[in-house]
Design a protein that fits this description.
The chain has two domains: about 190 residues, 3-Layer(aba) Sandwich (Rossmann fold), CATH 3.40.50; about 180 residues, Rossmann fold (3-Layer(aba) Sandwich). It is about 45% helix and about 15% strand.
Length: about 375
């Protein structure tokens, strides 16, 4: 007897480069007995085309980021009603609120919210995000049947903020380890694109321009290393939305720290595995995170990691990398210096072996998919 195929409709704020978006892509394109429909509240970003190419139905409602229109909300309700999903999975605060309410009005009760934010330093988030979080906390006992958190730390913080603890389940992110893997050809290709030699010490950070990513912390750490002659000639590559010369705030910070000759602003990329392979060291400099995908992605590619102790970053790294306190540039500088010395002594391949082994053991994609399927079956009543 065949297993019933679940029909899951996902609602997400947008499909640009980001952790939640990449997890959704992995879930929706995994070869499992489930049909996936993806609805973006804004646009198709970089992942819409890739989802569609994999056979996933994609809808983009064209709302302005951070704002909801009545027409967009009604269109979402109609889409949900006509799709007749077994369950609706939403991703991030705005989609949790808007998608959850639209699903309820469309007659769907099997709703799973998705918390990706760490819940830390929310005062630095937009006013809209703070208001939506409060609304979600109030509705968390009546709208969703499950609240999926990417990190245990995030689950605890949101429970403290009023979210229903008994609805929460923690599912760590999983990775396609055939795609995220050491790749010497990719390393040579991206280094050539960046204008860097094979033997140049290269650190990098894959993160959008956002106060919580704390690029200023990273740049101050690099500046301290350069100032004291501890840098070893390193170059720093910044990848992500806003990591471009036309970012006036970033450009001003770079000039203030006199780092223009040390930095490469690479902008967003839809080939993160290649980017990671181009690095000797990946640095997470954030002051707040949930479950930072980029750390596990770098480790899966065999890249040594230095992380700030935020969200589940230290848990992901374990004893395979270096953990430093957040918002302490000198501590981050020492961590980078130590890591680069280790990489130089052992070689980048050997230095990153333990990290890849840890991801293989703990963050396999199949395990994540099965846990999501279990949640959707539980809340919908569709059993295997």
């Amino acid at each position: 007897m065949s297993t019933p195929a679940l029909r899951i409709l996902h609602v997400i704020t947008g499909l640009g480069q980001g952790g939640a978006e990449s997890v959704l892509l992995r879930l929706a394109t995994y070869p499992e007995p489930a049909e996936h429909i993806v609805v973006s509240l804004t646009d198709e970003g970089i992942y819409g085309e890739r989802l569609r190419a994999a056979g996933v139905t994609v809808h983009a409602l064209g709302m302005k980021r951070g704002r909801v229109s009545l027409g967009g909300f009604l269109a979402l309700r109609r889409l949900i009603a006509s799709s007749r999903p077994d369950a609706v999975q939403t991703w991030m605060y705005h989609a949790d609120l808007i998608g959850g309410l639209a699903a309820r009005l469309a007659g769907v009760r099997a709703i799973a919210w998705g918390i990706r934010n760490s819940g830390a330093h929310l005062e630095r988030s937009s006013r809209s995000a703070r208001l939506v979080l409060r609304a979600c906390a109030l509705l968390s006992g009546s709208v969703p049947r499950a609240i999926v958190c990417a990190a245990q730390n995030a689950a605890e913080r949101h429970a403290e903020k009023g979210y229903r603890r008994d609805r929460m389940v923690v599912i760590s992110n999983g990775y396609d380890l055939s795609r995220y893997a050491p790749d010497a050809q990719a390393r040579a290709r991206v280094r050539a694109q960046w204008g860097l030699s094979e033997d140049a010490p290269v650190i990098g950070c894959v993160a959008r321009w956002d106060p919580l990513k704390d690029h200023a912390n990273l740049l101050r750490a690099v500046a301290a290393l350069v100032r004291d002659g501890r840098d070893g000639g390193l170059r720093c590559v910044l990848v992500g939305r806003g990591m471009t010369p036309d970012n006036a705030e970033l450009a001003a910070l770079i000039d203030k720290l006199d780092l223009r000759e040390r930095l490469i602003l690479a902008g967003p990329s839809d080939d993160v595995p290649a980017v990671m392979n181009g690095l000797d060291l990946h640095v997470l400099s954030s002051c707040a995170e949930g479950f930072p995908n980029v750390v596990a992605e770098a480790m899966a590619c065999g890249v040594y990691c230095v992380v700030t102790d935020v969200g589940d970053a230290a848990y992901i790294v374990g004893d395979t990398g270096i953990v430093v306190p957040p918002e302490q540039a000198e501590a981050l500088a020492r961590g980078i210096e130590t890591a680069l010395c280790d990489v130089a002594a052992r070689g980048s391949g050997r230095a990153g072996e333990a990290g890849r082994a840890r991801v293989l053991e703990n963050f396999d994609l199949a395990r994540m998919v099965q846990r999501y399927l279990a949640v959707w079956r539980r809340i919908s009543g569709v059993q295997a």
